[in-house]
């Protein structure tokens, strides 16, 4: 399967990403660009996007980019820095890019921005390559 087919296969079974309304914009090997509209159900008590929503959105981009070569990888470590509050109606985009690759681990840089291209959050994640195919795990 090519990278887009792998992500389509994953997305079909990724009920949480579906629940968030995530749309796949572009997929290349070790790269993902996704989009999501912020709804009122995603807001916290201060009227801004809940940090967990932003984290989950970035995590989906991370998963789609780190698994789209067909080899399964799982999160080992992640960090996120929130830089701008999101609001209802915003369109978030997450772009995940491979920045380091070894035999057993890889590091990805994920930038989350809004419709004005303002940086909303910066997420860096390390995956562990588990030695199985994505299709072996998602049955």
From TrEMBL:
It holds the Pfam family 4HBT. InterPro entries: Acyl-CoA_thioesterase_PaaI (IPR052723), HotDog_dom_sf (IPR029069), PaaD (IPR011973), PAAI_dom (IPR003736), Thioestr_dom (IPR006683). GO terms for molecular function: hydrolase activity. CDD domains: PaaI_thioesterase. Residues 47-120 form the Thioesterase domain. Keywords: Hydrolase. It comes from the Bacteria. SUPFAM superfamilies: Thioesterase/thiol ester dehydrase-isomerase. Its EC number is 3.1.2.-. The keyword Cell inner membrane does not apply. The keyword Hydrolase applies. This is Hydroxyphenylacetyl-CoA thioesterase PaaI. It comes from Chryseobacterium kimseyorum.
